[in-house]
Amino acid sequence: MTVHSASTLWYVDTPDPVAVLRDHPEPDPAAAAALVGQLYAEHDVLPIMIGTLNGCAAPDRDEVYIGCYPGLTVVCTAEAALVRPTKLPDLLVRPLASEQTYLVSFDETLHWGAFAHWERGEFRRSYSSTRVDILENEGLPMVWERPFWAGEHPVPWWGGTHPGAQSLPFDPPDFADAANAEWLGFHYRTPAEPGDLAPADLAVCGFTLYPKGQAPQPQPTQGARPGAATRRKRGLFGWLHRTDRVL
Question: What Pfam families is this protein classified in (predicted)?
Fold first, then answer.
């Protein structure tokens, strides 16, 4: 099963994040609760479920999913779905004093994708575009990007349609997914081969955000809600439905 949209931040301290994730570690709920309280101190926060990246990578604005593993942490938050990744708030760039911070976001229905990299909190690279408009392209391109710019990953145009003169030589969600594979060792958009790491292998702890003083009384934590993997995500990419151009 492939993931159609994602809005994720990764904080990495291990020299081999792929090896860590291949061990399919269980997330640390206490560490996740501490981090969500740090990031969203202006909210009341309640735990809601344990899910996986397969269904929780692109949460609604009132939800956050966090996986704290040995040496790396993923935060799934609508705040990472940015037209300009360099506008990511400082608190989200390096909340854990991590060596590397990675942003990976995309929505295949809008043909939009973005990625960014910070090293010890210092900006290194960012990219964001639709199939036609480059919304941000800052820092030095990385070696793994070359095949995309060289046209080796063309957009699959269907129904007799053809790319316009301004169309990019790749689909931006695929570009963002390639960044995720380079940095974290797995793809969101390509079905995993037997033995490969997949989003469904990585568990995350879910939290609902409420305005201060408006959270209901907490109930005992239940298992993953039915249909969580396919639950409709509302409003996450509303900015791109309104406009995909930076004026």
Answer: DUF6928
Is residue 247 in a domain? Answer: no
pLDDT per position as a tens digit, 75-113:
999 999 999 999 999 999 999 999 999 999 999 999 999
Give me the phi and psi of 139, to 5 degrees please: 85, 180
This prediction has a pTM of: 0.86
Q: What is the pLDDT of residues 175-233, one digit of tens each?
A: 999 999 999 999 999 888 888 899 999 999 999 999 999 889 756 655 544 334 334 34
Q: At 96, which amino acid appears?
A: L
Domain-embedded: residue 133: yes
The count of structural domains within the chain is 1
- As a three-state string, the secondary structure of 5-62 is EEEEEEEECCCCHHHHHHCCCCCCHHHHHHHHHHHCCCEEEEEEEEEEHHHHCCCCCC
Give residue for tokens 């934590």: 221
Residue 67 lies in a domain: yes
Instruction: Indicate the residue type of 129.
Output: S
Number of other CB atoms surrounding residue 232 within 10 Å: 6
Give the strand order in the sheet containing 122-129: 43-52, 203-211, 63-69, 72-76, 5-12, 100-107, 112-119, 122-129, 134-139
**Domain with 24 in it:** 5-242
